[in-house]
Design brief:
Blueprint lengths: L1 E5 L8 H11 L3 E5 L11 H14 L3 E6 L10 H13 L3 E3 L9 H22 L2 E5 L10 H8 L7 E6 H7 L3 H7 L4 E6 L1 E7 L2 E7 L8 H11 L4 E4 L7 H20 L2
Parallel strand pairs: 1-2, 1-10, 2-3, 3-4, 4-5, 5-6, 6-7, 7-10
Antiparallel strand pairs: 8-9
């Protein structure tokens, strides 16, 4: 498996910083946020992304995927076209696209989402870069594997991939082996989160915590991955409350070691 770190939580780190960081903390590379306010943006991706990938490659590291802005759900948008073309030029295999928020009219938004995914499949075919559809809990279509399958049925798994998220599925999905089986033809990458529930004055609230400290059943995740022979990209999202690159790096190293107990062998 390729263990990468989602760069969302450390937006000020530059290219050389990330190469050193991955080497120091034993990560295989990054899941690169290509978003406004980050070193690589949708506007400069065609220029910068090939250099980033080359520098990572020379260090024996990888850019496992690119994560686009959460709002980027239109395959005809200039930013989508630039990001996919930049990944094509850089040899980066996948782009996590944006979400399809539920607005109260399920039939209409489902049709729109399906057309968008068909468009991303076409863009993927043109560029050789797979579009990844992430299971994000809450008011998003495809927030679990059953919801994704409704939209993915009939689409080419070589062009569109399911990006399962352990934490979000713990909140809004079924047992992980069942979730994975539902999207088995499309399952491409795994996002790592763990979550805990806490009750406050306004009711229950979910909070992201390091792997092993929440409600995710990691033994089930590991068994399912090994049963499927999964050897793809695993993205540590690290979206829990920590400050600074050192603390995040140390936590990522601990998290990777914890996951290896369930994923390897």
């Amino acid at each position: 498996m390729l263990f990468v770190y989602f760069t969302k939580t450390l937006p000020t780190l530059q290219l050389e910083d990330w190469v050193r960081w991955c080497g120091t903390y034993g990560l295989n590379g990054v899941d690169l946020a290509v978003r406004p306010g980050y070193p690589v943006t949708p506007e400069n991706a065609l220029e910068k992304l090939p250099r980033w990938r080359e520098t990572f490659s020379k260090a024996g590291l990888a850019i496992g995927l690119v994560t686009a802005p959460t709002s980027l759900n239109d395959p005809d948008h200039p930013d989508a076209i630039r990001i996919f073309k930049a990944c094509q030029a850089a040899g980066i295999p996948g782009v996590k696209v944006g979400y399809f928020p539920f607005d109260g009219d399920f039939q209409r938004i489902s049709r729109q989402a399906r057309r968008a995914l068909e468009g991303f499949a076409t863009l993927a075919e043109k560029t050789g870069v797979k579009a990844l559809f992430h299971t994000h809990s809450g008011r998003n279509l495809g927030n679990n594997a059953a919801g994704q399958r409704l939209l993915l049925e009939g689409l080419d798994p070589h062009r569109i991939g399911s990006f399962l998220d352990t934490g979000h599925l713990a909140l809004g999905g079924g047992p992980f082996p069942m979730e994975m089986e539902l999207v088995k033809p499309w399952f491409s990458s795994l996002a790592i989160k763990d979550v805990e529930w806490t009750k406050g004055a306004k009711g229950w609230k979910s909070t992201i915590v390091p792997a092993g400290q929440g409600i995710v059943r990691w033994n089930e995740v590991g068994i399912a991955l090994k049963s499927a022979g999964f050897q793809g990209t695993v993205s540590l999202h690290g979206e829990y409350a920590l400050e600074g690159a050192v603390q995040r790096g140390e936590a990522a190293a601990v998290e990777k070691a914890f996951l290896n107990k369930f994923f390897s062998g």
